[in-house]
Amino acid sequence: IRGEDVFLIQSTNPPSENLMELLLMLDAAKRASAKTVTAVIPYFGYSRQDRKDKPRVPISARMILDLIAAVGVDRMITMDLHSPQIQGFTNVPFDNLYSRIVLFNRLKKYNLNFDSGVVLAPDVGSAKMSQAYAKKLGLGFALIDKRRPTHNVAKVVNLVGELKNKKVFIIDDMIDTAGTICNAAVTAMENGAQSVIAIATHPVLSGQAIERLEKSPIQTVIVSDTILMPKEKIFNKLEIVSIAEIFAETIKRINSGESVSSLFK
Fold first, then answer.
1. pLDDT tens digits for 75-109?
2. Is the pLDDT of residue 24 over 70?
């Protein structure tokens, strides 16, 4: 690989083992005199911890980026960061890609319009992403006001928007314990929704997530393959959409000096 442009692809779930493997491979590539080394990280672990929101906690996203930068990486590529602002934690060029290109095409098959379908943001944090889907698909938009009384526990406080007799798409960047998305689905059905479909980029599916999703009123769970899904995590409602084409085109454009942002216009 001496003198070559190297792209190392490694998702980070589970984060501990995979992050260490990524760091070692990046270091090996730099020491082998690669011309440039790009870390391609479809799922960026620890991206949710982007600030010190209480005493005696780390800013994990910053620490991970510091480690990757210390290896001497030339560029990073990831997808649908939970907190896009963490790109400012490092001076390394950082491309945050969007899964919506392939997910839009999947959702268009439902052939819905403003009167028959609505995109529901399960919390304020996912509102911007959900609004982008609603605008592109020509659907209505609704928002849930969610509070977290304790870590990884979500509680619905209020609903803004009309869901009665409509097919609902719940959009989020990831499904972790599935508490947020399942609570949103229950709220949607209680408010007269016709059906509920959940869409997320990163299927973390930790703890009792699968059990919650199977018992929930969610009809279908559509996710991407940014995280490798072992057989024990595959369940009947799950549908996996490949985002390999987006990463392939991005790598091609970077390697040939073309625009990456124009891919998402």
1. 999 999 988 888 888 899 999 999 988 998 899 88
2. yes
* Residue 264 pLDDT grade (very low, low, confident, very high; cuts 50, 70, 90): confident
- Range 75-96 burial, b when 16+ CB lie within 10 A, else e: bbbbbbbbbeebbebbebebbe
What would the pLDDT profile of 62-75 be if each residue is shown by its tens digit?
Answer: 889 999 999 999 99
Residue recorded with tokens 């009167």: 115
Taking the C-alpha atoms of residue 200 and residue 70, their distance in angstroms, rounded to an integer, is 31
Active-site residue among 109, 128, 136, 146? Answer: 146
Q: Among 3.40.50.1010, 3.40.390.30, 3.40.50.2020, 3.40.50.300, name the CATH number for the domain at 5-98+245-264.
A: 3.40.50.2020
108 is catalytic: no
Q: How many CB atoms lie within 10 A of CB 261?
A: 8
Nearest to 128 by CA among 167, 77, 83: 83
Q: How many CB atoms lie within 10 A of CB 19?
A: 20
How much is the pTM?
0.90
CATH code for the part of the protein at 100-242? 3.40.50.2020
* Domain coordinates in residue numbering, the chain: 5-98+245-264, 100-242
